[in-house]
Amino acid sequence: MAGHGDGLASYKAAATDISVALCTFNGALYLQEQLDSLLRQTSRPTELVLSDDGSSDASVSIVTEFARAVGMRLVVAPTHARLGVGQNFNLALLLCSRQYVALSDQDDVWLPDKLATALAAMHEGEARYGTSCPLLVYTDLTVVAADLRPISSSFMRSKGLCNPSPHDALTILLTQNFATGCTMLVNRQLLERALPIPKEAVFHDWWLALVAASCGHVLYVDQPTIMYRQHDSNVIGIDTMALSLKRIIAHPASHLEHGIAMCTSCARQLDVLESRLTECHAATAAIEHVHRVKEAIACGGVRSVGRLLSQHVRRLGRFRTATLYLLCMLKGADPRP
């Protein structure tokens, strides 16, 4: 495989106890660039775990040839029916064997110090909270076009996001995710509690952040470690607040319907989170907080708003918070299982 000779020397330079969970679906167009960025890591991964979601292109062969050429341990998930992004990552994460796991999309490019930066933050967290504490590290991203031309130097700022205080992290995560999966590094202690990812989880990265904030800690590094590529096939891309507002104004009915459906999905996610936290003997205060917010969203109407206020529930920014309260007020009560 051309171009890997120089990368192989650096690949053998600094091993770490990290698995990379890579999920693919017809990603051949940009996949090689992502794999090559693994070779340029100043702290290299020990293991690459691939779960392909039924690609009809050369995605699997690109990854297997890459691993063979550079001598990287590769674990390939068994062939399976189409799972979707969340359950595809669930399968990949279940197969990872190392102490730390980095989540990888198929179309980004990692900056050379991506893993070293996240691992340093992880070790700082372990020194502060103990090695038995579930931890999740995430970072900012540089947003780029399909040809890697810069669009925004900060994904977080372009989305109007910020890292909340540790005290507020769980309260915000109950109704809004702010941690991007492709930047995440998680430890084994978190995976033992978070896996398997339930089908009710809205997004896999949101679920991981919820469990981390409930049982341990979410840690943020305020610097980009990834070039986050935007193209026509993105599952989740970037929308500025202004663009989102324009779309809502242009199609208010469809956005209202979508927002109400998302509130219902959020309540279902919190329901399975409450069960998972009970199973892993999380702090009673966290379980009760999750339960009360779940019930507040599920009841709908004006009562929903009152209950959310009593739990100090908010999202990042006044507009997002007001939208949440409005949607919960407008939706009816969710049916009981």
From TrEMBL:
The keyword Magnesium does not apply. GO terms for molecular function: hexosyltransferase activity. Residues 19-127 form the Glycosyltransferase 2-like domain. Keywords: Transferase. Gene3D superfamilies: Spore Coat Polysaccharide Biosynthesis Protein SpsA, Chain A. CDD domains: GT_2_like_d. Coiled coil: none annotated. Pfam families: Glycos_transf_2. The keyword Transferase applies. This is Glycosyltransferase family 2 protein.
